Amino acid sequence: MQRMQLVHPAQVQQAVQAWQQMMPPTTYWPPVQTVGAKQTPRSRSPPEEVKLSDFEILDGAGGRSLGKGSFGVVRRIRRKGTDDVYALKTMQKMEVVSGQLVEQVEREIQVQRNLKHENVLRLYKHFEDEDTVYLLLEYCAKGELYQLLRTQKGRKFNEQMSKHFFVQLVRGLKYLHSYHIVHRDLKPENLLITHDDVLKIGDFGWCAATTVPRTTFCGTMDYLAPEMIQ
Known about the structure:
Transferase(Phosphotransferase), domain 1, 2 domains, Phosphorylase Kinase, domain 1, Prot_kinase_dom, kinase, 3-stranded antiparallel β-sheet, Protein_kinase_ATP_BS
């Protein structure tokens, strides 16, 4: 079988530079039109000390969630007495322990709480009670890039929107790599979009430092780099 020809990094950099000239960092393409999308204000940094009772769940305790994983769920919440909206990721401690995912959760918190970039999802706070760990995250009104793509005509973005999101993704990755962080599970489901079409890289459970050798085989099969499966 003929081996896949990989694109040289210099070619990628040249393409990104060309697109950045077409679309300056402060200029965003008109928002993607989605049914029911609301112009939601951005999340803001909460007070130093927060607890679960400081917030109200907007969709109800048993209502629609923003996302659900194997051991956690994400819901839309608002800090009481304000218009500040967040995404609250809840993880049950017993499920984390039984799934041998303690190290993964600790790494996600330790790494993401120190990241501050327009194209990286903010982790504002984390707190816990006897049974649950809570991550207070930046809220992205349009959800996953994957789901947004499915709402488009022909289930695809036009070329200009594709460039718009691609350039932002590269900016976010460049920031992560400048701090020697690799994501290791990059896919449309882990790319989130705000109400004004700013792309955010999220879900850092499988991230790792490039300064430490890693042998873990991780990620999502459909999106693995060719060199990982050769």
